[in-house]
């Protein structure tokens, strides 16, 4: 039935209802051309300019990122170089400290050896002085005892100091000679 209505309407009207009238097509075409020209002359350059600016900004940012990456790599290389130098310097300082420590220890040992030798020499000198002092005191006592004993044995007093000293010295010399012979 729809088909019958369309056919009936077509017979009554002179033109096809699906096609617009000619003046509508012309005015629509003129409006389309005006809109197309305005878009071509105004909008398209603005869009192209905006896209170019965006493209330049993106390329600039990429260049900045590349530059920043190069700087970061250079900084990393510098840091690595400085770290290697610091490690080498620390090694040299440690080695120098070890050598200084060895020198200090050697100097301390040498000083201690010299001081021990000095103390030993002083002690030996003191011992020798005491020995001599003791020997003199002993000679004096032994001499006195020998004179007293000799006086008791002989029955006379040995009052002459020169004679008494000679007797004591001879007695002690004989005593020392007998000690050396015994050794």
From TrEMBL:
- Check the record and name the InterPro entries matching this protein: ATP_synth_B-like_membr_sf (IPR028987), ATP_synth_b/b'su_bac/chlpt (IPR002146), ATP_synth_F0_bsu_bac (IPR005864), ATP_synthase_B_chain (IPR050059)
Location in or out of the cell: Cell membrane
Q: Which residues form a coiled coil?
A: 58-96
Question: Is the keyword Coiled coil assigned to this protein?
Answer: yes
Q: Which family does it belong to?
A: Belongs to the ATPase B chain family.
The record ties this protein, via HAMAP family, to: ATP_synth_b_bprime
Q: What's this protein's name? A: ATP synthase subunit b
Gene that codes for this? atpF
């Amino acid at each position: 039935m729809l088909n019958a209505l369309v056919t009936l309407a077509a017979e009554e009207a002179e033109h096809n209802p699906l096609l617009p009238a000619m003046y509508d097509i012309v005015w629509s075409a003129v409006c389309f051309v005006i809109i197309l020209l305005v878009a071509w002359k105004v909008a398209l350059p603005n869009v192209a300019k905006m896209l170019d600016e965006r493209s330049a900004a993106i390329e600039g940012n990429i260049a900045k990122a590349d530059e920043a990456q190069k700087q970061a790599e250079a900084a990393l290389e510098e840091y690595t170089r400085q770290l290697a130098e610091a490690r080498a310097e620390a090694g040299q300082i440690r080695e120098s400290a070890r050598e200084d420590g060895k020198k200090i220890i050697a100097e301390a040992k040498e000083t201690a050896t010299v001081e021990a030798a000095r103390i030993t020499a002083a002690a030996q000198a003191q011992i020798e002085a005491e020995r001599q002092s003791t020997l003199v005191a002993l000679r004096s006592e032994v001499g006195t005892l020998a004179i007293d004993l000799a006086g008791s044995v002989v029955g006379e007093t040995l009052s002459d100091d020169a004679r008494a000293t000679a007797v004591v010295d001879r007695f002690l010399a004989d005593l020392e000679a007998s000690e050396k012979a015994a050794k």
